[in-house]
Amino acid sequence: MEYRRLGASGLKVPVLSFGAGTFGGSGPLFGAWGHTDEEEARRLVDICLEAGVSLFDTADVYSAGASEEVLGAAIKGRRDRVLISTKTTLPMGEGANDAGSSRSRLVRAVEDALRRLNTDYIDLLQLHAFDAGTPIEEVLSTLDRLVRAGKLRYVGVSNFSGWQLMKSLAIADRHGWPRYVAHQVYYSLVGRDYEWDLMPLAKDQGVGALVWSPLGWGRLTGKIRRGQPLPEGSRLHATADFGPPIDDARMYAVIDVLDEIAREIDKTVPQVAINWLLQRPTVSSVIIGARNESQLRQNLGSVGWQLGAEHMARLDAASQVTPPYPHFPYYRQEGFTRLNPPCV
What we know:
alpha/beta, TIM Barrel, two-stranded antiparallel ribbon, 12 helices, 10 strands, 15% strand
């Protein structure tokens, strides 16, 4: 397993990490992802650690805390061998202070997460979304106190826009508070919006990407084919409306090329899709999920080899879209190479 630094921090993380969204699955979204109990979770953690996957990602909102509880039970007795990443900010109740990143919410959310995970520190806490109602100074000063108290090792964000992340980094620098070292983002062959603003920002500011949904919300599993209905067991029947919008014509063009390359190099479609991501700039780790051992082992086969330049070029061409202003040709900054060497 290859390890990379998480952004500009000193923390090294495996290029594949495990997403525990299936642990304790309940509700319309997480229940469709999976219902992994403690015994199954322990087995999946065993397999991950054997392969060198030591970073496990969860969130308080995943099945109303059940994911954190099951993960905490699954790593019992081996806390020193794992890195825990969890997230907070999204609503955990109907109360006025049950959502957001206020000082009150963050302190309570961290204490609740520590209890559910059965640990006394969190390796990486990420804000699950930007809270426009709380001053950034309040957010960062609270995170600073939690880091100083030893309850958090590193901090990051998820699903921020470019200005939200850059403003936060500037304020952190001004006050000497911990910088965000990670940005958990949606990025895939059928969703390359991350490249327009967030990737150049991440490269410039030393923020590592933790990629969620690398298979395009389940569309690049190798089971979806042009002109055929969704497979009976596909979770897309229940979850398609929760995920990012994806253009079908482009999706099938990407799947066609993935199929061709997978046959040429004797790999699976998901393995090719994940390996493409691992060669993209700023990517520190790709979060893989699995409902069972078979899915996990297949995803683990995404590492230990590299797509060739010709294969990367074919996938780039099939998945490329014209970005919006000011990024589209002629206006986009990447086009002025004398002033702005391209990031991608």
